[in-house]
Design a protein that fits this description.
Shape: globular
Distance between the termini: 30 Å
Helix content: 25-40%
Structural class: alpha/beta
Mean pLDDT: 91
Number of strands: 17
Strand content: 5-15%
Number of helices: 16
Length: about 550
C-alpha cells in the first residue's frame, strides 16, 4: 500500500486522553472444529514457478518499513511456502538485509545521517504513567513539548538503515512486489528512475530493476516466465487519497481513459493482465480485489469523540465559543443573513460548539462540503452592519467552516500526533478543541462515499478480468473476507484469536495501522489459497495462523 509521510509522536497534551486506544474486544471463543486431513493436490494449475506482482502487501512491507522479518513473511513468500506442498519451486525475493528497515511513513533524514529511523513499534513513553502506548519509529529522538504544558518524551530505542541496491541475482527473482506503487507504475519505466524530477520514481523498484529507468516491473515479472502468477495491485490508487484525508494531495485514479498516471484504471489493468496471459499461454494465476480501506485501523483507532477535558478546560472552551454560538443564532434569526449564509437553521445548529467535563467530547474539524457553506461573507455582513467589531470578525476567521465531528466521520491515526497540541505555540489554541483539526486528518462522509464508489468500480474491473480469462484466473475476494472480519470483530482460527486491529495479542495489522503483520499476511494468503483451490480444483493447505507472530507488545525506554 501507499507510503504516507507521517510523524508518529506520543500524545503529549493532557487535553486528549486515550485517543489512540482501540475498542476492547470480548474474547468469546466459538466451538473449535478440527478440519479433516486432506492430501495436497495442485488441481489443474502448475505451481512449478510462482511469480508475484503487487505492492507493499506482496513485498512484505509492514510497520512503516520494509525489513527482513516482514519480507520473510510476505504474502508472496507465504503463498510460495504453501505451493511447495504441490510441487512449487524456490521463491526468491530481493532481500532487503535490514533488521529494522528504512521508515517511509516518517520524515527520515537522508542516508549518512546520525540516525536513520526504522520500523514502527508500539512505544510506551512512561511505563505505567498517564500516557498510553502509541506507534513510534525506532530511533525517534527525545523531545520536549512546552505547550500547552511541558511534557518530555524519551528517545525510542534502535534505528534503521537506508536501503541498498539488491546484490543478488536479479534474473532469479520471483517476488516483484514493490511498496508504494500505483497500478500504472507497474508498466512504465520511470518507476525505476531517474530519481530526480520524476514523480513515478520508486527506490524499492530501482534497487532490483533489471535495467533501472528502462525496464518495468511487469516486464521483469514476465521475463521470469512463471507457470503461475499472482497480480495484486490497485489498493494504492485509492489508499493515498484516503490516508491524506481526501485532501486532494493524491487524487483518486479515474476509472476510464487510456493508460496513464492518475487515469485509466480499467485500460491499465486490462493491459497488464493481457500481457501476463499472453506471455505464457499455459500459465494460470490469481488476482486479488481491493478491500474497503476505510475499515483499516488507520481510520478506526482515533475516535471522533476522543477528547477528554477537565472541568476548567470545558468551562474555558464553552466561554470562548459562547460568542460564536450566539452569532450563529443571530444569523438564524435574520432572514437576509440566513439567505446570505446559504445555510439552513438546522445546519447552523449543527455548527455550534459545546464541551462537557470528562471523556467523549467530539473533535473540532474543518468542513469543506456544500452542506456547510463558507460563512465568511455572512460574518463580513455582520461587521458592515456594526453588529460585531473588526476584532470580533478577525476572531471568527478560523471558524468560517467548522463543526464538531460525528460518528460518520473518520479520524486518521496520524491525527494522534497533533491532537491536543498548540497551534503556532499559542497555549489557548489547542488543535481539536479551540482550533479545528486540519482537513488531511479527517475523512468526511462525502469523501468516504467517493472511496467506496471507486473501490466498487475498480473491483468490477478486476472481477471482469478474471471472468474473461478463459478460466485461467482465480479471483481472491479480499474485500469480502476482510469485511466479514470487521463485522465479526473476532475470529478463532487455528486456535488463535484474530481481530481487525493492531493491538496485541489479537490484531492482524501492523503498527502502522495499514499493513498486515506476519499473522495478517498469513490470513491474507489464505484468502488467495481458498480462491485458487475453488477455481482450479486444488487442495493446497492453508497457512496455519498459529505459526505466525502478531504485533509485538509495547516497549518502553
Amino acid at each position: 500500500m501507499k507510503k504516507t509521510k507521517i510523524i508518529y509522536i506520543a500524545i503529549a497534551a493532557t487535553i486528549i486522553v486515550g485517543s489512540c486506544k482501540q475498542e476492547p474486544i470480548k474474547l468469546t471463543p466459538p466451538e473449535v472444529v478440527t478440519p479433516p486431513v486432506v492430501t495436497p493436490t495442485k488441481g489443474s494449475a502448475d505451481f512449478t514457478k510462482f511469480v508475484a506482482i503487487g505492492n507493499s502487501l506482496t513485498a512484505g512491507y509492514q510497520a512503516g518499513a520494509l525489513f527482513t522479518e516482514g519480507q520473510k513473511n510476505s504474502l508472496g513468500a507465504i503463498l510460495a511456502q504453501q505451493f511447495a506442498t504441490v510441487g512449487g519451486g524456490a521463491f526468491n525475493q530481493p532481500d532487503i538485509n535490514s533488521v529494522n528497515g528504512f521508515n517511509t511513513t516518517t520524515t527520515n533524514p537522508p542516508a549518512g545521517s546520525a540516525t536513520i529511523l526504522g520500523r514502527i513499534v508500539l512505544f510506551d513513553p512512561d511505563g505505567s504513567g498517564p500516557r498510553t502506548a502509541g506507534p513510534a519509529a525506532l530511533g525517534t529522538p527525545a523531545r520536549t513539548v512546552t505547550c500547552p504544558s511541558t511534557v518530555s518524551t524519551p528517545a525510542v530505542p534502535g534505528s534503521g538503515n537506508a536501503p541498498a541496491a539488491f546484490s543478488g541475482n536479479k534474473a532469479a527473482l520471483n517476488n516483484f512486489g514493490v511498496p508504494g506503487i500505483q497500478l500504472i507504475q507497474a508498466i512504465i519505466p520511470q518507476t525505476g528512475g531517474p530519481s530526480t524530477g520524476n514523480p513515478a520514481f520508486n527506490p524499492f523498484y530501482q534497487r532490483f530493476a533489471s535495467n533501472p529507468g528502462t525496464s518495468t516491473i511487469l516486464g521483469d515479472a514476465v521475463a521470469a516466465n512463471g507457470s503461475f502468477f499472482m497480480f495484486f495491485l490497485g489498493n494504492n490508487d485509492i489508499l493515498g487519497y484516503a490516508t491524506t484525508g481526501g485532501s486532494g494531495a493524491i487524487p483518486l485514479t479515474t476509472l476510464g481513459g487510456a493508460p496513464g498516471p492518475g487515469t485509466g484504471f480499467q485500460a491499465t489493468y486490462q493491459s497488464a493482465i493481457g500481457t501476463l496471459l499472453a506471455a505464457n499461454p499455459n500459465s494460470k494465476g490469481v488476482v486479488g480485489n481491493i478491500p474497503n480501506v476505510t475499515n483499516i485501523p488507520f481510520f478506526l483507532t482515533v475516535r471522533f469523540n476522543a477528547v477528554t477535558l477537565t472541568a476548567d478546560q470545558a468551562t474555558a472552551l464553552n466561554g470562548g465559543f459562547a460568542g460564536y454560538n450566539a452569532i450563529l443564532d443571530a444569523i438564524k434569526g435574520n432572514p437576509s443573513l440566513l439567505a446570505l449564509s446559504g445555510s439552513s437553521a438546522a445546519n447552523l445548529d449543527a455548527r455550534k460548539v459545546t464541551y462537557t467535563t470528562g471523556a467523549g467530547n467530539r473533535i473540532l474539524i474543518a468542513e469543506k462540503t456544500t452542506e456547510f457553506p463558507d460563512l465568511g461573507a455572512t460574518f463580513d455582513a455582520l461587521r458592515t452592519a456594526g453588529q460585531i467589531t473588526q476584532a470580533q470578525r478577525d476572531g471568527l476567521e478560523p471558524y468560517r467552516r467548522v463543526r464538531q465531528a460525528t460518528s460518520t466521520d473518520l479520524i486518521t491515526l496520524s491525527a494522534g500526533a497533533v491532537l491536543g497540541s498548540c497551534f503556532n505555540n499559542i497555549p489557548t489554541a489547542i488543535i481539536g478543541t479551540s482550533v479545528p483539526l486540519a482537513d488531511q486528518f479527517v475523512l468526511i462522509p462525502s469523501e468516504i462515499q467517493a472511496i467506496l464508489t471507486r473501490t466498487a468500480e475498480f473491483n468490477a474491473v478486476i472481477k471482469a478480468a478474471a471472468d474473461n480469462s478463459n478460466n485461467r484466473l482465480a479471483l481472491a475476494d479480499v474485500n469480502a473476507v476482510f469485511a466479514k472480519l470487521i463485522t465479526d470483530r473476532l475470529q478463532i482460527i487455528d486456535g488463535v484469536a484474530v481481530s481487525p486491529s493492531f493491538a496485541p495479542p489479537t490484531g492482524v495489522f501492523s503498527e502502522d495501522g495499514v499493513h498486515p503483520n506476519n499473522r495478517g499476511s498469513a490470513y491474507l494468503a489464505n484468502v488467495f489459497i481458498d480462491a485458487i483451490n475453488a477455481k482450479f480444483g486444488a487442495s493446497i493447505p492453508r497457512a496455519n495462523l498459529s505459526k505466525f507472530s502478531g504485533t509485538l507488545l509495547p516497549i518502553n525506554p
